[in-house]
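Collaboration report, partner site 2.

Our partner group contributed sequences for two proteins of shared interest, and the home lab folded both. The records are reproduced in the order in which they were received, starting with the first partner submission.
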Amino acid sequence: MPPEVGEVLVMIHHQARDEAELAAVREAYHVVSRRLADVPGMLANELLQSALDPSALTVVSRWADLAAFQSWEEGAGHRADTAPLRPYRDTRLSAPFGIYRVDAAY
């Protein structure tokens, strides 16, 4: 089912430079996902791996709205909850993240 208009998708880009880092990113994703399972307004998340560049991974989280995401992001636990993934941020990019509001969906 596609996201609803008004929902927010947050994309955070990561890089795994070798197989060990790829395994570490996957494990960190599961740790962080368990920590965020009951965050109000967070609807789902997924880990994507580029089909063209296996070193590129993106975590996409889906939020009920921008206010829900911002409330969590500004909260005390945000940095600690996401710390396991932080070492793998993709520094090849000028901005390793994007925040998008769904404007239309089918």
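Second partner submission, folded after the first:
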Amino acid sequence: MKKYFLIILLCSVNAYAKPVNFEKLYQSWGVTTKADAKKAEIMWTQEFIVDRSCASCHTNNLKKYGAHIKTKKRIKPLSAKVNPKRLTSVRKINKWLKRNCKFTYKRECSPQEKMNFIEFIKQN
């Protein structure tokens, strides 16, 4: 009985997790300007490395599944409208932006670029 109670308790903690305070996140990155989702939309399809852009793995439609161009691993939709787990953890946001920017652009994205990408994803 205790085992089941613990499982239910652990599952319910995630259900009541605080939503990400994006304003606070952007401030922690030192961003003082407004987000520009249009700039992120342009960067989304730009290839800084041959045959590699955000859309290469995530597709142009953030509501659809993608696949990693090297590993072929299936990627769940980025749109929170169809995948409610997206953009719910600051730790995961930081982890994946860092990893994906390095893979796609061979550098970390600037705080402004990260903010732009988040706003682009939120709008889709």
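Feedback sent to the partner group on the second submission included the following. Helices lie at 2-15, 22-28, 37-45, 54-58, 90-105, 111-123. The mean pLDDT is 89.
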